[in-house]
Design goal:
Jelly Rolls, alpha+beta, 3-stranded antiparallel β-sheet, disordered C terminus
């Protein structure tokens, strides 16, 4: 992308006046709709979270003629990319992909972050986010269903809080339905530290690594290694939220060193493992988070 490809931030935001957010499915030709994301470089007045509801997608960010470094981000179901307002980006279309764009009013986001716990994601830089099935379905439900304005705004606020609360940021692991892969998935889900390679599994299952890889990608939209990392990060977030030391978590999910685990965790979640739960806000078994009174912004 070049500076010429990235027009100035639009004067009119995508989010309708009076609402907090809006979600659009970017399907093939519709990706070029005015004001939405397309294959050429552009920016938005709103914050944007891009996430696939099926298949996998590539998002390009940055510009060769700006201080923002150019990067390519590959997303699969359960993964999203946070783009602060004004971030140059492009979304090349894919025939088997449904990419969704969640546009967020910057003022609504600021209010949400101010009312969120100390671990809240500020959203001031491009970073990976988790879009679990529950949040994904709620966003798409809001996109296509009519409802009273007051109910819609309450539901939109819940969506913002789910995005803002870093304590619940974890990988969303796609369910594997292919029974052929059951030996592999069962082993990894039972023991995330299982380090057997595709070649190891191919030998055990009397098949080829390419066959296992192809069937994983057909069923989940991601390769075996990426799927296993999603499992590991999900387990890691849960253990960290329960107060387990980083070193213990690293070994439990298959990393030989804390530094290797921290680097993998940062790539997957956009933050370091020490930031999942604030030390002063560690879980109290007699006062779990879901029973605590929450401040409303």
């Amino acid at each position: 992308m070049t500076a010429a490809d990235c027009p100035v931030v639009p004067v009119v935001p995508v989010v309708p006046e009076g609402y907090l957010l809006t979600t659009r499915e970017l399907r093939l030709r519709r990706w070029q709709d005015a004001g939405l994301c397309g294959a050429t470089g552009h920016t938005h007045a709103d914050h944007v979270v891009l996430f696939p509801s099926s298949g996998s997608a590539v998002v390009q960010t940055g510009s060769a003629d700006t201080e923002q470094r150019q990067q390519r981000h590959r997303l699969t179901v359960g993964q999203g990319l946070w783009l602060p307002a004004g971030t140059p980006h492009a979304c090349p279309p894919g025939e088997e992909t449904v990419l969704c764009a969640l546009f967020i009013d910057p003022d609504a986001w600021s209010r949400t972050v101010c009312a969120a716990p100390a671990t809240a994601v500020t959203g001031t830089s491009v970073h990976a986010v988790t879009v679990p099935a529950s949040l994904r379905e709620l966003l798409l439900h809001l996109a296509y269903r009519e409802m009273p304005d007051d109910r819609r705004i309450r539901a939109q606020q819940v969506c913002l809080e789910l995005l803002a609360d870093a304590r619940y940021d974890s990988a969303d692991v796609p369910t594997v339905h292919d029974t052929f892969l059951a030996p592999v998935t069962g082993a990894v889900l039972g023991d995330p530290s299982d380090s057997r390679t595709l070649e190891d599994w191919a030998w055990l299952m009397k098949t080829s690594p390419r066959t296992i890889s192809r069937r994983f990608r057909a069923d989940t939209g991601m390769g075996f290694a990426q799927w296993r990392t999603s499992v590991r990060m999900t387990v890691a977030v849960r253990m960290l939220a329960d107060g387990s030391p980083v070193g213990v978590v690293a070994r439990r999910v298959g990393y030989a060193t804390v530094s290797a685990f921290s680097a993998a965790f940062l790539r997957a979640t956009g933050r370091r493992p020490t930031r999942v739960v604030d030390v002063e806000d560690a879980p109290d078994p007699e006062n779990p988070p879901y029973l605590r009174e929450r401040r409303v912004g």
